[in-house]
């Protein structure tokens, strides 16, 4: 039977929550590859398994309830089966919930593809008093049925050898014919003949299946028909329309509905007569339902949800703090080492400020993303995330979002101090596309951990008495902005009815640690690979913008002359010490200290002039004609521009622009003081700047993720343009409104 | 024995689906979840804001929004 050295393609299909991925992980372990299906964001998982010399290539299809053409997941699963034609499909079904799970099985059988039925979670079924006669079920369906427990690996070997045996037989497709009743069957026969006669799609698909899809009004198949066989297609559509009309008049129903009825009828007949026996009444409350009595209770539900979400937040940001710090200090150590090693000049500046800072910026996120994905994978795999969506849907639906959107908002900084990069990635748990897109476009309005130090610096300078209440106000403002802008997006560019909710609340389960780790690692690795390259390129670009063209020779000479002048004022024997600094332990004469201070001030002034003359500085100056409406001068503009690279950089750029030298995040008292004494700054301008920073274009790391997660460049561009426009508009309103009220003088 | 919309059923009430009026994507989703005429169900509860509603059907828990439940007609078992 096994000829050896053969490779078989085996697909895993099944409903969401049936344990399909757990089984896939149990079989392939860490030997799996995760990618995306071309052009879309549905994950594609592949892995290999060696069995008696043959090689099994396993592909984990997205979890679907059916094989229609409505969702991306379903289309992907269907197209894979039809185009790649796997030798065997392992159809995983939840033994506790056979009736609904078999609905997909029936559709696979209608397609005719060879199926092995995997009866998963038989242990849970046993403990619930559900008994399944495996042999009888196998006989009635005429296909192998293998009981398994994916969590423990029970039945795994039996399953794989059954699959390999079936694959080696190289069976052809043998579609199952079900009767759909006296109205549908004749129409189906008529259509089937027409399709077979003109060989429409028959090289890949059974003609009865194609006819069935015409009756189900399947957009993909009908579009294909119109394109390749327009005449046949219009005949088929006419038959379907006639039948629909007839069913409407006689039964007030639709072909689709009647077909579904008969499929469930087929399943009911299949399970009758002792194939499935339930000892307990079906509405008995199990442990999972008991837990739900508390966790989705009217009062306790929201309270425990707040607590759990807060814990996720704490876990993600507190536990990742140390590794983030380690990574950051490793990079700053590397930067310092290179700083000392390389000669002064452009190459050094490129390596230290461009490359090391850029790569450090990307890698610095990794521990954060790792912890976030771990926490989300935990909530997802236990089944709690579905409860969160259930409880919050009413609120988020008002704004055109979905109950599951809350996770992305909180991770992005909904409780002040998250990060939009993992936040945008957290939208993967949303299955409805419009709501998902609206969520990932608005999550970056939250106050992430990089905006907070900038706010803190400005608040310390201008609202020193109300620090806590200002921070709280800003958190509220960001939620309001995100929700209202989400609504705006959903009634304009992402217009359309909300995707049906219909969410299954799976029983609570303890996830396997291995599964959590695999889940977490694969998602994190994807980030490192894709974001890494783009962000590095952007960070080099920004370095160039702020470095070139540099000071003109004339200005350089003038600064050098001024330095020499200061040195000339120092007695000759002390000049060496002024230029190099005193040897350790030696006291510095006052005249030297004074001269050194003046030279330092001169260096800062030179840096400021260089920044003003750089491309970024020129852009900032050119923008003054527009930005004066919101009260921003060139210094603010340059700082905001640099914030595209990463928001916390705003502080250090402002520092340079105000000739303060290198200002480190957290050590910004001097900047606060400098700004609060500056006549160009006042509380009103500061507030306008804060609002602008809260809302304007996300940093490039986030934009990269938006592009990757939405699958289209245009959404990355959109979030830059839209967010900046909104931010500017509101900043102008704040600034001009405040001035009109007589504030800000 | 009266037929009511699923939206108007109270937690703890049982019944049998008589009709699913939804068409298009919503209709298909509802059927994918196993809700077709003749299916017994019982209302398990409601979300804290009374929407969506959680029902027990075919041995699993399904939640759906009230405006989705409006398409499902149920013959209520008066004894429940």
Helix content of chain B: 10-25%
What value does the Rg of chain B take, in angstroms? 11 Å
The helix-and-strand class of chain B reads alpha+beta
Q: For the residues shown, what is the average pLDDT of chain A?
A: 87
How many strands in all of chain A? 10
CATH class of chain B: Mainly Beta
Q: Report the total helices of chain B.
A: 2
Broad structural category of chain A: alpha/beta
Domains counted in the coordinates of chain A: how many?
Answer: 4
Termini separation of chain A: 89 Å
The number of helical elements of chain A comes to 32
Work out the number of β strands of chain B.
6
CATH homologous superfamily heading of chain B: Ferrous iron transport protein A (FeoA)
Q: Largest sheet of chain B, order of strands side by side? A: 1-6-2-3-4-5
CATH T-level fold name of chain B? SH3 type barrels
Question: Can you describe this structure?
Answer:
The complex is a heterodimer of chains A (745) and B (80). By secondary structure, chain A is of the alpha/beta class. Chain A has four domains: 7-168, 3-Layer(aba) Sandwich (Rossmann fold), CATH 3.40.50; 184-259, no CATH class; 296-507, no CATH class; 545-740, no CATH class. Chain A is 64% helix and 7% strand. Chain A has 32 helices and ten strands. In chain A, the strands form two sheets. In chain A, strands 2-3-4-1-5-6-8 form a seven-stranded mixed beta sheet, with helices on both faces. A two-stranded antiparallel ribbon of chain A has the order 7-9. In chain A, helix 7 (184-197) crosses helix 8 (207-215), helix 7 packs antiparallel against helix 10 and helix 31 crosses helix 32. Chain B is of the alpha+beta class. Chain B has a single domain (3-77), classed as Ferrous iron transport protein A (FeoA) (SH3 type barrels, Roll). Chain B has two helices and six strands. Chain B has helices spanning 24-32, 66-69; strands spanning 3-5, 14-20, 40-46, 53-57, 60-64, 72-77. A six-stranded antiparallel beta sheet of chain B has the order 1-6-2-3-4-5. In chain B, strand 3 (40-46) and strand 4 (53-57) form a beta hairpin. The longest helix of chain B is centred in the middle third of the chain and has 9 residues, at 24-32. Chain B is globular, with a radius of gyration of 11 Å. Chain B starts with a strand and ends with a strand. The relative contact order of chain B is 0.35. At the A-B interface, helix 3, helix 11, helix 16 and strand 10 of A face strand 2, helix 1, strand 3 and strand 5 of B. Strand 10 (503-505) of chain A pairs antiparallel with strand 5 of chain B, so a sheet runs across the interface.
């Amino acid at each position: 039977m096994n000829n050896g050295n053969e490779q078989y393609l085996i697909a895993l299909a099944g409903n969401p929550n049936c344990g399909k991925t757990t089984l896939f992980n149990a079989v392939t372990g860490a030997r799996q590859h995760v990618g995306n299906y071309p052009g879309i964001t549905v994950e594609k998982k592949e892995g290999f398994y060696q069995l008696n010399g043959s090689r099994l290539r396993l592909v984990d299809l997205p979890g679907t309830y059916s094989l229609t053409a409505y969702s991306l997941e379903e289309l992907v699963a269907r197209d894979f089966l039809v185009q790649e034609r796997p030798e065997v499909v392992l159809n995983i079904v939840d033994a506790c919930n056979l009736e609904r799970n078999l609905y997909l099985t029936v559709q696979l059988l209608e397609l005719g593809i060879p199926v092995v039925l995997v009866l998963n979670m038989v242990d849970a079924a046993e403990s619930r008093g559900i008994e399944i006669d495996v042999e009888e079920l196998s006989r009635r369906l005429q296909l192998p049925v293998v009981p398994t427990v994916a969590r423990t690996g029970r039945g795994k070997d039996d399953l794989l050898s059954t699959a390999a045996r079936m694959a080696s037989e190289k069976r052809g497709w043998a579609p199952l014919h079900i009767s759909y009743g006296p109205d549908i069957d004749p129409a189906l026969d008529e259509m089937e003949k027409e399709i077979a006669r003109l060989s429409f799609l028959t090289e890949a698909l059974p003609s009865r299946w194609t006819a069935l899809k015409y009756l189900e009004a399947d957009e993909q198949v009908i579009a294909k028909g119109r394109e390749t066989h327009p005449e046949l297609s219009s005949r088929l559509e006419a038959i379907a329309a006639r039948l629909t009309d007839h069913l409407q008049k006689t039964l007030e129903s639709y072909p689709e509905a009647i077909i579904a009825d008969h499929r469930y009828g087929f399943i009911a007949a299949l399970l009758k007569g002792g194939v499935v026996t339930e000892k307990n009444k079906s509405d008995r409350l199990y442990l999972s339902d008991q837990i739900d009595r508390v966790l989705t209770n009217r009062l306790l539900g929201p309270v425990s949800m707040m607590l759990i979400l807060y814990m996720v937040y704490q876990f993600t940001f507190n536990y990742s703090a140390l590794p983030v710090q380690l990574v950051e200090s490793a990079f700053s150590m590397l930067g310092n080492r290179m700083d000392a090693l390389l000669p002064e000049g452009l190459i050094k500046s490129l390596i230290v400020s461009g490359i090391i800072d850029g790569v450090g910026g990307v890698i610095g996120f990794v521990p954060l993303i790792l912890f976030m994905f771990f926490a989300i994978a935990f909530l997802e795999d236990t089944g709690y995330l579905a409860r969160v969506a259930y409880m919050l849907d009413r609120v988020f639906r008002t704004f055109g979002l979905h109950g599951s959107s809350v996770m992305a908002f909180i991770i992005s900084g909904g409780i002040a101090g998250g990060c939009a990069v993992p936040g945008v990635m957290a939208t993967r748990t949303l299955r409805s596309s419009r709501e998902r897109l609206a969520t990932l476009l608005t999550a970056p309005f939250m106050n992430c951990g990089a905006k907070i130090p900038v706010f803190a610096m400005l608040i310390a300078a201008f609202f020193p008495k109300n620090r806590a209440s200002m921070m709280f106000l800003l958190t509220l403002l960001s939620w309001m902005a995100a929700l209202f802008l989400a609504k705006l997006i959903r009634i304009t560019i992402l217009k359309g009815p909300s995707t049906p909710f219909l969410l299954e609340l799976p029983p609570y389960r303890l996830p396997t640690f291995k599964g959590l780790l695999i889940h977490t690692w694969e998602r994190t690795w994807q980030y490192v690979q894709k974001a890494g390259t783009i962000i590095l390129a952007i960070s080099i670009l920004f370095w160039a913008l702020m470095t070139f063209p540099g000071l003109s020779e004339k200005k350089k000479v003038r600064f050098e002359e001024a330095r020499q002048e200061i040195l000339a004022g120092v007695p000759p024997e002390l000049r060496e010490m002024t230029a190099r600094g005193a040897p350790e332990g030696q006291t510095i004469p006052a005249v030297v200290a004074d001269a050194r201070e003046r030279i330092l001030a001169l260096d800062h002034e030179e840096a400021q002039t260089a920044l003003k003359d750089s491309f970024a500085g020129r852009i900032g100056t050119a923008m003054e004609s527009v930005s004066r409406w919101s009260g921003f001068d060139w210094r603010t503009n340059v700082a905001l521009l640099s914030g595209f690279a990463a928001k916390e950089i705003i502080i250090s750029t402002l520092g340079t622009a105000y000739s303060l030298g290198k200002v480190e995040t957290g050590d910004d008292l001097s900047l606060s003081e400098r700004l609060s004494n500056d006549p160009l700054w006042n509380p009103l301008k500061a507030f306008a700047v804060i609002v602008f920073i809260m809302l304007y274009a996300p940093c490039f790391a986030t934009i990269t993720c938006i592009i990757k997660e939405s699958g289209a460049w245009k959404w990355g561009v959109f979030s830059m343009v839209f967010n900046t426009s909104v931010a500017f508009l509101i900043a102008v309103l704040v600034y001009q409104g405040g001035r009109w009220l007589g504030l800000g003088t | 024995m009266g037929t009511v919309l699923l939206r108007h059923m109270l937690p703890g009430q049982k019944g049998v689906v008589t009709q699913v009026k939804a068409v298009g994507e919503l209709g298909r989703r509802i059927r994918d979840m196993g809700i077709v005429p003749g299916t017994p169900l019982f209302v398990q509860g409601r979300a804290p804001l009374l929407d969506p509603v959680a029902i027990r059907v075919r041995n699993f828990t399904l939640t759906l929004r009230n405006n989705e439940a409006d398409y499902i007609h149920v013959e209520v078992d008066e004894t429940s």
